[in-house]
Amino acid sequence: MSTFFSTNMRIKLPAVLVFLEIVIIVLFGIFVRYTPGEENRVADLHFYPYFQDVHVMIFLGFGFLMTFLKKYGFSSVGINMLIAALGLQWGILLQGFWHMRANEIHLGIGSIINADFSTATVLISFGAVLGKTSPVQMAIMTIFEITIFSCNEHLAVYVFRATDTGASMTIHAFGAYFGLAVSRLLYRPGLKDGHENEGSSYCSDMFAMIGTLFLWLFWPSFNSAIAAPENKQTAIINTYFSLAACTLTAFALSSLVEKRGKLDMVHIQNATLAGGVAVGSCADLEIQPFGAMLIGSIAGIISVLGFKFLTPIFASALKIQDTCGVHNLHGLPGILGGIASIIAAAVQVNNAISPGMQAAALGCSIGIALVGGAFTGLILSLPFLGQPPDQTCYDDSVYWEVPAEEETQRDNLDHNKHHLNL
């Protein structure tokens, strides 16, 4: 009875979501207005193709990338959509409060793209706790994380004046280490030896690969969306060639680290994207295509090695259960991107950026993420927020109506396993 009560969302989820939407509508009514001036609105339209591409990444790319768990597809895509819809609205407000004019937040397509970026941090963190949290917990994490993210972004970009156009530091590194801190606070000793549902199937891996392809194709738009017009082409070219080089090294390392030389779908789904993450901070800088390819190649190597060796160490020694391996796709490549931007500043690729300020932005992004994630993890560990018990983690049927034929198949599989054990 207590387990049923703890995971029953009938009252908790509607109450939380309706309350948050009412608060957001009120705040929009008080502060948010359309961008004034016809010329400004027309000029803002050049962002629309980038907005479409980034939106596809947020709703399709991230959502399907996390469908690799064999019994958690509904939650991966569905909760991804919930986080994105809530985060977009909250991000407009929290980022807008830093740039108010005459006590108004002016809303345009550019600001919606930035809100998409803020949502991306939560989706990255979601990957670290995938399968172990409730929809209510994820809604609360969205509010806290975007609030903390907007403060860190303002500090890194507007106080330190760091360049981070593709957000290697402020989105990827921040989101990864925030999620890892939350995961550490929500550590489950009962899952230390794994879980029968914490795995993939042939079909679920194919769906996850669709997410990878969407992200890979649209990542140049993500890294160039808010670049200055004269730097957009540079950002697109650098991102594309970083991704291409990363893909080759990811395939090579995946085969190399496996004893029989076979490719691991986990590496291909994730490490092939690390180049887009790592080149982000330098995307709009004149690092030359070979520089972007070098960054991407290194990113592919460290990502594969992270999945192969670091993830088990994190789980056993640090008690961090990173479901999607966000440390290897976003954390390590995000740090690499920050280091690359420090080097680019040191060799004066752009005289306007400072190595010290780039280092400060990287340090504050990781530090604030860890502290903010730990605080948020403490809030999410409250027992009445509907988290699933260990035995039903990574299973859609806890929070979703699963089709009857699927339930029947699962019951038959369980029945067969029982007889085999006998």
Q: Report how far the terminal alpha carbons are from each other.
A: 30 Å
From the alpha carbons, calculate the radius of gyration and give it in angstroms.
21 Å
Give me the number of helical elements. Answer: 16
Total beta-strand segments:
2
Looking at this protein, list some descriptive labels.
422 residues; mainly alpha; 16 helices; 2 strands; 1% strand; globular; disordered N terminus
Condensed summary:
The protein is an all-alpha fold. The chain has 16 helices and two strands. Helices cover 69% and strands 1% of the residues.
Describe the structure.
The relative contact order is 0.15. This protein has 16 helices and 2 strands. With 422 residues, the chain is mostly helical. Strands 1-2 form a two-stranded parallel ribbon. The chain starts with a helix and ends with a helix. The chain has helices at 2-7, 12-31, 38-44, 48-65, 73-97, 109-128, 135-159, 168-185, 202-224, 232-257, 265-270, 274-278, 288-316, 326-346, 355-380, 404-421; strands at 32-34, 105-107. The model is unreliable at 1-5 (pLDDT under 50). Helices cover 69% and strands 1% of the residues. α4 runs parallel beside α6 (109-128), α4 (48-65) packs antiparallel against α9 (202-224) and α5 packs across α6.
Secondary structure elements and their pairing?
Blueprint: H1 2-7, H2 12-31, E1 32-34, H3 38-44, H4 48-65, H5 73-97, E2 105-107, H6 109-128, H7 135-159, H8 168-185, H9 202-224, H10 232-257, H11 265-270, H12 274-278, H13 288-316, H14 326-346, H15 355-380, H16 404-421
Parallel strand pairs: 1-2
Helix pairs in contact: 2-5, 2-7, 4-5, 4-6, 4-9, 5-6, 5-7, 6-7, 6-8, 7-8, 7-15, 8-14, 8-15, 9-10, 10-13, 13-14, 14-15
